[in-house]
Amino acid sequence: MRGAPGAFLGQYHRCPFPYIDGQIAYGKWRATPGLRYENIEMGRDNRLAVFHEEVKNTKALSSLNLAYLLNRELTLFANYNTSFGSIQHLQLNL
């Protein structure tokens, strides 16, 4: 069980993720596609009621960044990213 020593209730979450990206250049254009793989694990422990609940969520999330080098002082930039909202502790239905 997780939580502070001597605590009756404990909460935790872990979210390790690898990320990879690379840049493609063509003239004044720069494109940077990326991919992140999230592995989220959340849970609660209730030591008084001897209860434990855990929720896991994994997902691959993509991104694309696009830049145009207008001149030495100015770069136009746009990006697109995918994301998701992880489950909050209050949504564990305890």
What do you see in this structure?
The chain is mostly beta strands. Helices cover 0% and strands 60% of the residues. The chain is built from no helices and six strands. Strands 1, 2, 3, 4, 5 and 6 form a six-stranded antiparallel sheet that branches. The chain is rod-shaped, with a radius of gyration of 21 Å. The mean pLDDT is 77.
What secondary-structure arrangement, pairings included, does this model have?
Elements: E1 9-14, E2 19-21, E3 24-26, E4 29-46, E5 51-69, E6 75-81
Antiparallel strand pairs: 1-4, 2-4, 3-4, 4-5, 5-6
Q: Which structural category do the helix and sheet elements fall into?
A: mainly beta
List how many beta strands DSSP finds.
Answer: 6
What share of residues are in beta strands?
over 45%
Instruction: Please state the average pLDDT score.
Output: 77
Radius of gyration from CA coordinates: 21 Å
How far the N terminus sits from the C terminus, by CA atoms, comes to 16 Å
Helical content stands at under 10%
Residue ranges: pLDDT <50 for 5 or more in a row? none
Q: How do the helices and strands follow one another from N- to C-terminus?
A: EEEEEE
Shape: rod-shaped
Number of H- or I-type helical stretches: 0
Please outline the major beta sheet. 6 strands, antiparallel
Name the descriptors:
94 residues, mainly beta, 0% helix
Give a brief rundown of this model.
With 94 residues, the protein is mainly β.
